[in-house]
Amino acid sequence: MSDDELSDPLRDQLLSAARTAIGDELRSLTYFTEDAVEQIYLRGDLERSADLVGFAERERMGFHSKSLYRGTQLDDYQFTIRVFERGYLTRVIAGDHGVWATTDEMRIDRFEELASALTTVLEDL
C-alpha cells in the first residue's frame, strides 16, 4: 500500500469507527492526504454529486493550520466542525492523513466522539 492508498481493512476501520460513534447520522466519509482523496462511504439516499477534489483542496488547509496552532495558548488542534444548512462536516487530521465526515444535525458531544474515534484509527497509520 502506498502512503496515499487505503487498504480494505483501513477503509473498514474508519467506517466502523464513524458508524459506531454517530450511527445513521453519517452521510459520507472521505479520506485524504496532500496528494489523494478517496470517498469511503456515501449514504444511499445521497447523490454522488460532491466535488471531492474541491472539498479536498479546502480540507488540506488543515495540514497547515494544525502546525500553526501548535504551541499556542489554545494547545494542540484536535478537529474542525463546519456548519451548513443541512448538516455538518467534521475534519480530523493525524500526521499526513486526514478524514472528513459529513453528518446530519446532531448534538455537539457526538462530534467529539466522532473525531476521537477517527483520530485513533489515523494515528495507527
UniProtKB/TrEMBL annotation:
Known Pfam families for this protein? Answer: DUF7522
Name of the featured protein:
Uncharacterized protein
